Amino acid sequence: ELLALARSQAEYILGRNPLRLSYMVGYGPRFPAQVHHRAASIVSHKANNRFIGCMQGFDHWYVRKRPNPNVLTGAIVGGPNCRDEFRDDRTNYVQTEACTYNTAPMVAVFARLHNLSATAAEEGCRPGTALGLSAKCK
Fold first, then answer.
1. What keywords were assigned to this record (predicted)?
2. Which 3 state secondary structure label does DSSP give 7?
């Protein structure tokens, strides 16, 4: 039961949710584009070699309503509210903040689910879902 719950939560994070939005940045066709993260929301030094201090970053980049110039591939954002609503706006840090405490625990969950899927495949089972928990064996 716990593995089934873990799988359902992982699938929810990856886009099997009412918004069909992946909360893992860079995964799937739809994911947050305005992550609350300084390095992601400010243009790279290679693209603009002018000095960008804290004030310039805030005044020129933080409040922009366009997607971040740098994608934080693999980061997991805060996610939806209790009504499954999500506002993709970098000033909405509660929902769009990319933190290690969101992402790090999921590494273990994804690793375990991947291992289960690989084991099922080795035993001749066909995974019933993307993360391979429910398997249909020969």
1. Carbohydrate metabolism, Cellulose degradation, Glycosidase, Hydrolase, Polysaccharide degradation
2. helix
Q: Name 79's Cβ contacts closer than 8 Å, sequence gap at least 6.
A: 13, 23, 86, 95, 102
DSSP structure class, residue 62: I
**Residue 97: helix, strand or coil by DSSP?**
strand
Phi then psi for residue 87, to 5 deg, are: -110, 110
Whole-angstrom Cα distance, residue 138 to residue 126?
Answer: 8
Annotated active-site residue in 36, 37, 45, 60: 36
Three-state secondary-structure class, residue 59: helix
pTM: 0.82
**Dist. CA 108–CA 33, nearest whole Å:** 25
Catalytic: 36? yes
Residues constituting the chain: 138
pLDDT in tens, 49-84: 777 777 776 677 788 889 999 999 999 999 999 999
